[in-house]
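so my prof wants the structure for this chain in the tokens format not the other one, which i didnt know existed until like an hour ago. anyway here's the sequence
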Amino acid sequence: MKNRYGFVIDVSRCIDCRACLVACSVENNVPMIHTRIWVKDSGVKGQFPGLQRTFVPYNCMHCDHPPCVEVCVSGATYKDPNTGLVLVDPEACIGCGFCVEACPYDARYLDEARGVVDKCNACLQRVEVGQQPACVATCVGGSRLFGDLNDPASEVSMALKNARSIQRLDYEANGHDTNPNIYYINGDVLESGFLPRDPRYNIAEEGWKKVLVPAIFAGIGASFLVQATYFTKQLVEGEKEFDE
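here's what i got, hopefully its the right format
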């Protein structure tokens, strides 16, 4: 059985200390002006003395059906079949930003300095050596959990089994169903107002892969054809000069 890594977040335990943000930034060399993860604040709600405030840790949802993958014209964004994580290959990324606009969770950013898109990769470099993602390892309240959702004995599976409530920020509209792999337990994140937005590109109508990719390859082919024609012309003219 393949791994299906995901996060379980106990919103009742988050104290908004921001240790996770600092750890993520240091571990992954995230520029100061950007962040891979967030803690969203619902603000104070209710009437005194029955006041409440919810802090919601938030990052890439590592969706089962990620819209970002569908619009990636270079294939840089992909869902890893071995881990279930949505990843970005920086060597293949062309920095077009289509995936940034398509993500309903605003979980991506364009790193202008490198010219590539970046986002949470669940600290795969740590997971591959048996460690937890930096945000999970430094969560002082024990709010962030990470593990294999396909393993019934994993910490995340046990947390889901024992949870008082379970919610996901699922986006279901316009032919899409993201099926995110972040589960929020023991708190109402939907009432907090943290809902996904519509992707800014309609994948079905725009057809990025059907239109842009062939156009790009056609342009490359035309460029090679021009170069080949010029080379052939130079070769023929050179042979004529040699014969003379």
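also thought this was worth mentioning. The first helix runs from residue 19 to 28.
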